[in-house]
């Protein structure tokens, strides 16, 4: 199996509370929206959503977006 180089991306992640959970968006990744019932779950959902988004870009051989300034850092390893 071919080993892929590990790349670490950091993006600004916005967590919006609606009183029952959180809606998560990533401004530099258009269309990326996910949710979590609490902040811990919201962070994990954000990491997973970013990972999936970037893997789709890599699969389509598109260049990932540049790193964003951070409000909250979310480390994603693919």
How does this model look, in words?
- Helices cover 27% and strands 23% of the residues.
- The chain is an alpha+beta fold and 78 residues long.
- The protein has one domain (15-77): Double Stranded RNA Binding Domain.
- Strand 3 and strand 4 (33-36) form a beta hairpin.
- The radius of gyration is 13 Å and the shape is elongated.
Order of helices and strands: EEEEHE
Task: Report the strand count.
Answer: 5
- Structural shape: elongated
The CATH architecture would be: 2-Layer Sandwich
Order of strands, main sheet, comes to: 2-3-4
Rg on CA atoms, Å: 13 Å
Question: What is the element layout, followed by pairings?
Answer:
Layout: E1 8-10, E2 14-17, E3 22-25, E4 33-36, H1 39-59, E5 75-77
Antiparallel strand pairs: 1-5, 2-3, 3-4
Observed structural traits:
alpha+beta, 23% strand, single chain, 78 residues
Short structural description:
This protein has 78 residues and is α+β, with helices and mostly antiparallel strands. It has one helix spanning 39-59; strands at residues 8-10, 14-17, 22-25, 33-36, 75-77.
